[in-house]
Amino acid sequence: MSTETPLPYALLESAVGPGIFAALPAKVEIGECWARDGLQSLDTVVATDKKIQMIDRFSEAGFAHIEVTSFANPKYLPQFADAREVLAGTKRKPGVGYRVVVPNLKGMERLVTMLDEGIKVDEALFVCSASEAHNLENTNRTVAEQKKEVAQMMDMAKKAGLKVVGSVLTSFGCPITGDVPIEVVRDLGRWYVEHGADYVQWGDTTGMANPRQAYAFYRYMFEALPGVPFIVHFHDTRGTGMANNLAALLAGATIFDGSVGGIGGQPAGYRPKYHQGYTGNTVTEDLVCMLEEMGVRTGIGQDEVVEIGRQAEKILGQTLRGQVTQCGPVLHKPRS
Amino acid sequence: MSTETPLPYALLESAVGPGIFAALPAKVEIGECWARDGLQSLDTVVATDKKIQMIDRFSEAGFAHIEVTSFANPKYLPQFADAREVLAGTKRKPGVGYRVVVPNLKGMERLVTMLDEGIKVDEALFVCSASEAHNLENTNRTVAEQKKEVAQMMDMAKKAGLKVVGSVLTSFGCPITGDVPIEVVRDLGRWYVEHGADYVQWGDTTGMANPRQAYAFYRYMFEALPGVPFIVHFHDTRGTGMANNLAALLAGATIFDGSVGGIGGQPAGYRPKYHQGYTGNTVTEDLVCMLEEMGVRTGIGQDEVVEIGRQAEKILGQTLRGQVTQCGPVLHKPRS
I want to staple B31 with a disulfide (CB 3.0 to 4.6 A). Which of A262, B124, B211, B257 is the partner? Predict the structure, then answer.
């Protein structure tokens, strides 16, 4: 719909100049976290064929990266007991980065076995918190222990030909200890890069960032780790997800994570007491439509992403948090 | 809480410079629309004493402007049949702009009678859509007819010593006809100013703006109408409310409307078919906390605005859309 419509405020900008929007990228990549970060937050296990249906729709729609599943222990996260079936059943679209999350060595060994058997995966994501207290709570390991295991897993992933995403949890603050020193955050990102990470994902794990911080953060990290592709990953716990993504965009970021319907965050049944309120990711539908309306191309159609949001609601049997999903994209011409 | 905490990203900014945040205002004014724009959207009539309780809490908390009630015909909007009682019962705090909305001459006559009887009001808000089609749908009058009546009401308000807010509805797009020419929007704002308006409120009536547009729009209007105080009023229909407020802030705006819990929009029972999805305003609690976290002082405490959000939920008997209301403000120090 909007892709062919000239920007309605072109006249405005030509009058006053683009200002802070002067360096806006022409296009960005969107990563879709619904099938992993999203589904892990739900109580109900979604049927394998429904997951595959959604993942295939994501790739057809134009998402650049798709979180497909997790290699968490199925005893603890039964949502992902079908990791093999989902990966095997997905129609692989060339150019799309199909991503899996690997929380521990056991999961990594399971992944390597599948890869040996011909199952295809493009990217493996590993996590470590910048906050010691959060890492302990999240993984039951110290940061030092976590890094040791992650380094080993990263080696295995690289040897298997996968790209590696190093995720820095609590990059913008810790829900247990508050502010996290920026040097600690930066050094964990740098550590990932030195150990072969192809991407660093800066996770605002419990939605603590504000736009001024997000903007300075990304500018700082672009200087500290030049040339490293960053993945912007804001949770929307405090309603700042969209504004923080905007700030990161204005700082030069070009890869953004979202989750259809905004679902995501702490696994169901493992939600710690310190994380109250909404845990989910920035809503993909709203993010894509905002970017497209700003003239930043996501490769994804607005009407299509709205339809995807509606399909997700049908599959999950509930209204999710996508707002364009309810009202549709912005109207630029008279209603017919 | 945060007011005494040094900005946690001060180090970040000192390293990379403030960039686009260099001209951030030290403080802004927040207008609270809950008691009018908010309550008009609900099916249930809220008890007069509960309204007064909330309005008094708003003024104590530090809101600069408060929409108190509407002089709409109580036959059509029974929510505001108690306009006189609410105004008379409110504990007036010096410096706060207590605002009423006046949709037509009948309402204006009612207001003048009350003023004559000693009821106090500070600001009267009048509306007219930039979009002809929207004005017709909203008021059953053409824009020309609307302006004629508004001009008359503005005269009466000025004579009664009130400040006048001229509200330009559909400033960022019309849900019936799409893009609205910027000259038409500008000229309606200018018309208000020429007829004595003290403020121009630019209404994104059905949440159609995007941040790039919002930024250019405010820069353009600041040039077109220099020295006129603008009221930023974004509805959150497409999840862009917070990001649009950020963009307006970066363009130099300093007066922002929100509604506690995000309630607002089309009056209950009069919701036109073209306006689907969420109709409400930007959530005040989330907006205040975002601004405070950015070091922009609203005069309102974060803990207090969260408590106000919770009180609104108690009064209305439902969970509203305030997200900090669920999780509380950002934690900067270790949990005690």
Answer: B257
What is the model's pLDDT at position A14?
A: 87
Contact B11 A293 (CB under 8 A): no
CB A83 within 8 A of CB A117: no
% of chain A residues with pLDDT over 70:
98
Pairwise pLDDT comparison (A276 vs A219), residue with the higher score: A219
Closest in A24, A219, A237 to B16, CB measured: A219
Instruction: In whole angstroms, give the CA distance from residue A280 to residue B132.
Output: 40
Token digits of residue B305: 């605005």
- Asked if the C-beta of B243 comes within 8 angstroms of chain A's C-beta atoms, the answer is yes
- State the pLDDT at residue B129: 98
- Let me know if residue B21 belongs to a domain: no
Asked if the structure places residue B155 within a domain, the reply is yes
- Please identify every stretch of chain B with a pLDDT value under 50, giving residue numbers as ranges: 1-5
Of A178, A220, A250, nearest to B15 by CB-CB distance is A220
* Amino acid present at A295: G
Task: Report the run of H or E that residue A119 belongs to, with start and end.
Answer: none
Range of the domain at B215: 29-257+270-278
Q: Looking at the domain assignment, is residue A20 inside a domain?
A: no
The tens digit of pLDDT for each residue in A286-334 reads 999 999 999 999 999 999 999 999 999 999 999 999 999 999 999 999 9
How many CB pairs below 8 Å do chains A and B form together?
227
Residue A4 lies in a domain: no
User: Is residue A2's pLDDT more than 60?
Assistant: no
Task: Check which CATH number belongs to the domain holding A34 and give it.
Answer: 3.20.20.70
Instruction: Give the number of domains in chain B.
Output: 1
Query: What is the model's pTM?
Result: 0.97
Cβ contacts (< 8 Å) between A330 and chain B: which residues?
173, 208, 210, 238
Q: Which residues of B185-200 are buried (b: 16+ CB within 10 A; e: fewer)?
A: bbebbbbbbebebbbb
**Distance (Å, whole) CA A126 – CA A134:** 15
Chain B: nearest CA to A27, how far in angstroms? 15
